[in-house]
Design goal:
493 residues; globular; single chain; 2 domains; mainly alpha
């Protein structure tokens, strides 16, 4: 891992003897650093974004097939995906983020042998987590009824939830394996697997729903098979082609597992607090006077916001890899410059999308509805959607830095304060007490996102990157296992 800063031989004058950047002063050096770091980030981010688009396409195409079965079937699958699925998926993804931190730092530090151990440790933790979350799927129908959903839709959704349990269980192996590959920048294979799985899924939907007329059971089978195809393909690639990081099954996966659990829980809480925060807007909107228009208009805006957010989820993963690798390598200035470049580019993209929304706020609702009333309601929310797009361009990047640096617990505390002690109560007051409706709800909660973003930017500004490098090895020992274990693996390799 010598001088990984170089991109096709560029930037040699910017690299010190230890492989870190020298101080970039003057326009020429700053622009060179900006160019190199941009290429390094996007080489990782683009395949991840492509894979996320394929996953989103899988859900969208399933909804299209199911939508032709009937409205109640579409409502049932939408409920499972948006309520039960989002809750469980978000928690499992967060639990798997610990692997992203430790694998990235271990790879940067040259302790490649530890990557397989961390991945196996995460398999164990996520498998137990998935079993603990199974009651959500088994008792989905009563849970949805408790949340006020219609009995017929809730019963159908509950039946569908039980049939997609195999798909949910695959996440326990899918997420850690994906993080294992991302930490080594082996992201192209993830993109190709995602594309192949999308074609497989479309074929399965056509076979099960169109040809065999299995209805929602066919959709569930397609989900189950596709998810395990992705998981199996990733596992095969790891075992066959990742000989440096994969040394076979090891009992070390069970040692010092509680420290790993603590980091995993911090990661899960950090991510879930963000996911559930935006979900709560729609839940609260459902209790307004004109609930149908409020929920529908918000759903359209969130759908549009979701397309943009996928880009920044890819950037989130890319900057996490960059930061964890460089901290593991002992390159504080590279880590700092990578953060600055990524935030600048994300802010630029967010501003661009904001301008597009403001220019088209009176028209884009036509894509989703023919109702003039709903179109007008969506148009009124255009300003809030535009500002949210800017905030959502910076916030995921900072979260990626947190994962790369191992600051999940700190960010979780910030999220609790900004989101649930400030933004959510403010949105409730503006929406209900001040009678501002959905605009008040969204505006108040947007203030929570703004406060969180400003606080995290301040934390980044105050960060001592040299100290972060010094603490990285200690973090790896505490969370990933004792140094003696690392030495044992290195000696036996």
């Amino acid at each position: 891992m010598d001088a990984p800063l170089l991109v096709n031989g560029e930037g040699a004058a910017l690299v010190a003897e230890d492989g870190d950047y020298v101080a970039a002063r003057g326009f020429k050096k700053v622009s060179e650093v900006f160019w190199i770091e941009s290429k390094r980030m996007w080489l990782i981010a683009l395949p991840i974004v492509f894979n996320i688009w394929c996953q989103y396409g899988t859900n969208s195409i399933t909804s299209i097939f199911v939508g032709h079965l009937g409205d109640i079937e579409l409502s049932a699958i939408s409920l499972i995906n948006s309520v039960i699925g989002t809750f469980a998926f978000g928690f499992m993804l967060g639990m798997g983020s610990a692997t992203e931190t430790l694998c990235g730092q271990a790879f940067g530090a040259g302790q490649v042998n530890m990557l397989g151990v961390y991945m196996q440790r995460s398999w164990v933790i996520l498998s137990v987590t998935s079993i603990l979350l199974l009651p959500l799927y088994i008792f989905a129908a009563p849970v949805l009824k408790l949340l006020g959903q219609q009995k017929d839709i809730a019963d159908l959704a509950g039946n569908f939830a039980i049939k997609v349990i195999p798909q949910f269980l695959s996440l326990a192996f899918n997420f850690p394996t994906q993080k294992f590959l991302q930490a080594q920048s082996k992201v192209n294979v993830i993109a190709w697997i995602g594309l192949g799985a999308l074609f497989v899924h479309v074929g399965l939907l056509w076979l099960f729903i169109q040809m065999l007329e299995l209805g929602l059971t066919g959709a569930a089978l397609a989900f189950d098979i596709t998810s395990w195809v992705i998981t199996t393909a990733q596992l095969v690639y790891v075992v066959v082609w990742c000989k440096d990081g994969w040394k076979g099954l090891s009992w070390l996966a069970f040692k010092d597992i509680w420290a790993f659990v603590r980091l995993s829980l911090a990661s899960a809480i950090m991510l879930c607090l963000e996911v559930w925060y935006m979900m709560s807007v729609i839940v609260l909107a459902g209790h307004l006077d004109n609930a149908v228009i409020a929920v529908d208009s918000l759903s359209i805006c969130m759908n549009i916001n979701g397309w943009e957010l996928m880009i920044f989820i890819g950037i989130n993963a890319a900057v996490s890899v960059r930061i964890s690798n460089e901290l593991g390598l002992g390159h504080p200035r590279t880590a700092k410059y990578s953060v600055y470049v990524t935030i600048f580019q994300s802010l630029f993209l967010g501003t661009f999308f904001m301008a597009v929304i403001l220019a088209t706020k009176d028209y884009y609702a036509v894509i989703f509805t023919n109702s003039p009333v709903l179109q007008k309601a969506v148009s009124k929310l255009g300003f809030f959607l535009a500002i949210t797009m800017v905030l959502n361009s910076v916030q995921p990047v900072i979260s990626g830095v947190a994962v790369g640096g191992g600051w999940q617990a700190l960010v979780a505390y910030v999220n609790i304060g900004c989101y649930y002690l400030f933004g959510l109560p403010l949105g409730f007051l503006l929406g209900y007490k001040a009678n501002l409706g959905v605009e008040g709800l969204w505006g108040g909660m947007m203030c929570g996102i703004l406060l969180q973003t400003l606080l995290l930017l301040l934390i980044l500004y105050k960060t001592n990157w040299k100290k972060e490098v010094e603490e990285t090895n200690a973090r790896m020992q505490i969370w990933g296992g004792q140094q003696t274990e690392v030495d044992k693996i290195a000696a036996s390799a």
